[in-house]
Amino acid sequence: MKKLARETCIIGVGMHRFGKFLDKGLKELTRVAVWNAIHDAGIDAKLIEAAYFSNVLAGLITGQEAIRGQVFLRDAGFEGIPIVNVEGACASGTIALREAVLAIAAGLYDVVLAVGAEKLYLDDTARSIEAMSTNADVELMGGLGFQFTGSYAMTLRKYMEEYGWTQEHFAKVASKNKYNGSLNPYAQYRKPMSVEEILSSRVISWPLTLYMCSTMADGAAAAIVCRKGIARKRCTKRPIDIVACCLRSGEVTGEDDGQRHVARDAYEMAGLGPDDVEVAEVHDAMAPGEMFRIQKLGFCQAEEVGRLVDEEYFTLGGRLPVNPSGGLAARGHPIGATGLAQISELVWQMRGEAEPRQVKGRTTPYPKIGLAQNTGGYVEGSPAALTVTILKS
Amino acid sequence: MTDLPIKEGLFHVGQLPDEKPYLIGGKCNVCGYTCFPKKLVCIRCRRDDTMSETKLGPYGILETFAVMQVGPPDFPPPYIMGYVRTMEGALVFTLITGCEAQDNALEIGQKMELLVEKIKEDRQGNNLVGWKFRPLQES
Known about the structure:
The structure holds two protein chains of two kinds. Chain A is built from 15 helices and eleven strands. By secondary structure, chain A is α/β, with parallel strands linked by helices.
């Protein structure tokens, strides 16, 4: 794994709350997240030299297929600077972050914006659902009734058979994340839910029940990335270093579908291992998905995950808090914004700003190492795009 | 009303009474990678001169499945989607038929058999036919 030529850090993050906002368009969602990030950094917005704009479905949902970033960022006050549109389904947000890092590492810029915004709620739900089905190979699977809930259900069924995971484990994970989400002012769903309530909700595709699954959402999230050497002079808050930002595509010809490989890349780039991670945000469009992400990231073996869930290892007060934000199913999943919401949460946790859902570091008041894992789309039985980002304070 | 393939070039319908249907896949002459649908480039070797067309099916093993209790417009629930690994080694996304749409009707690892039948109708009312798998009836 080659090293980046210049080191980078995050100096500001911001979000627009995730939820259902029929009266708000992408211009407003984008502007709010971007300016929250600018104010968080405490910098003059004129210092931003380039922007990477992540969005997945504006073309199908709103008709704005081309020049999305240029259109939506104009209302946020940006002209002149290069704006690059980024799309990698649900992983788009962290892909945009990585592009911002690479632009700085290449020596072109010192301060770059990464922003993700998505609007999925319309009056026409059928159109929203049809648009979301394009996150898979449309030609091959679209015509055959493929659904993402089913893909999670199929994967979970294999783990249940092989490693003894149970539907009750899945409900415990969902309940933990609903609780975390209830403490997050940016979350779409803020109602805690018991294991029993989750288990007794409608079956979507066994073992998944309704309250284990993410729904549609609108929202936006942003991060301002800065060259490391100059960050402290520019911003008011403690910069958080980006020590790894790795991207891979899914694989089908080997043992690994790409998830272990991208995690290995990230640990190598950071010079860290899974045991060093103190807080993680992982991609759980259906809450139990957290369990297979955890083992693919090397936090533990597949056969241990069920027991660790029972022992509350991944709760806010556990040894390794996972999805303190609530994760995708509770915080909400406006797909192009999700990756940068994961990053925002890690930054808040590592600065000690997460208030009631604040987790502790192992040797310091707040966690020093945070990891975000983000997955997008589905091609031929494996995820389409996979990222792992590691932050260090 | 005519039967139309859901997509051309993906499968062969058995015409004669004892002729079995098959899927049109690809196999790499160098590494053995076998896939469905057919590809002209091997994604393991990343070479464009090693792939040849190969017949897949009619038998395979059920890798996993999901019984869907909600569905898009053409797929009234409950219905089953799954992955079957054909005996030739290709992983195939498929609808599953020939059993109750219930979680206890199937088991991972069981033998499956390919068939070609109606998937849905197009807007003109033609039957769009494609591949499905059903549990193999052992005789």
